[in-house]
Amino acid sequence: MKHRPKNKLQPFSLIIFSTLAVLGLTIGLLWLAATTASAQVPVNINFLKNGSTVTAVQVGEGVDVAISGDPDTAYDIYFAGDLILTVTTDAAGNALILSYPIPSLAPGGYILKSTLQGQSDSFTETAIIVVLPDPAEIIVNDNSSPIWPWGSVLSYRLLDHAPNTTALPVELVKPDTSVIPLTPLETDADGNSINPGTHIIGQTDVTGTHIFRTAEASATVQFVAGCIKIDQGGCNEPVELPDRATIIINIDKHAHHRDYRVRFVDPIGNASQDISPSVQTDSQGKILGLLFTLPANLVGGQTYYIQTFDLATGAQIASVDIDINILITYCAPLIQNGAFEDDALMSLWRYSSIGEQVTRTSVPHWLAPGQSFSLLLPDTHIGGRPRSPWLYQEFIMPS
User: Fold this and answer.
1) Which tens digits make up the pLDDT trace of 357-375?
2) Domain boundary at 224, 243, 272, which?
3) Cβ atoms of residues 264 and 275 within 8 Å
4) In a domain, 18, yes or no
5) Could you tell me what percentage of the chain is helix, strand and coil, using 3-state DSSP and rounding each to the nearest 5?
6) What per-residue confidence (pLDDT) applies to 361?
7) What is the DSSP track for 72-135?
8) Residue 192 lies in a domain
9) Which pLDDT band holds residue 39 (cuts at 50, 70, 90)?
10) Which residue in 262, 260, 258 sits closest to 274, CA to CA?
11) How many independent structural domains does the chain possess?
12) Which domain holds residue 367?
């Protein structure tokens, strides 16, 4: 009787062993494959600005870097060929780098990419455009005029300054180089002022070049005295006129291409009125040839005004005095022994003159009977207006 060796595998046992070996190898390979598949390149990588994806960035600005990929996986992040940082995603597969400063690169296209840590053969990338930052600016009244007259309200704001500041200093440099601190401004994430500052030019301020400045920018503005000319007079030169006179008004040294209100101002009565409720200066800050007839019944010896007002702010800009010179004359030259003898005296009308001999302090509109008064009268009387030469005469109202 033959015996089989005890340690010799039988064909059936060999088949079972082989099957188990193959199964174990397969399981190992599947595990290795599963392990390898769990570490993939990110699905997305982007620059974010204020939470939104951007594909163009400025040199020096801070942007966030966001990636999404597999959970709990380390990734290398590159920009313009340089390694920025290695980050590990959270349980949801996300990672965020805050406030990455864009380096000093030449303007152009660059690549933002991410790879598995230490591996460069596979990656996810996004094309990015890099531009140079806009220069910092101070804007004064929207840069609408190079000159501003006394009384103007100036609004100043900042562009492309240091971002997220709470009180960025602003100064005003005067022609004598003295410096006045202005209201500091708060800037947003773009370096733009959130609210503007305000500066009012005083009515007796120094004229000349003034500079609004910060540490990063400056703006030059000319301060001037606004000018109103009546007829052939000089800037803001007072004039003496009769009431009901028609005058020509020329305005100069105001802001360019700006709307103004031109007004006749009666400080004691109700004759105030708009000469022009809205008129715009030209490219030289002028308004030429406004015609205006002075109201009737103005008070002799009283000063009235022609004034301009900034239509946007309501601020008074320029002013010129008009002195009303009232005389009393007669309707017909009926004079005997230095006294009027005609009832026509009661139809007296008023006449104004700018003759140097005229006193305008005590001539009433209507005189009581028996009252003595002096008048400067012409030697002849034509129509309704007297003419030169003038004669000084005394009269007494009839009783």
Assistant:
1) 333 333 334 444 454 444 4
2) 224
3) yes
4) no
5) 10, 45, 45
6) 33
7) T-EEEEEETTEEEEEEE--TTSEEEEEEEEPP---SEEEEEEEEETT--SSEEEEEEEEEPPPP
8) yes
9) low
10) 262
11) 4
12) 326-396
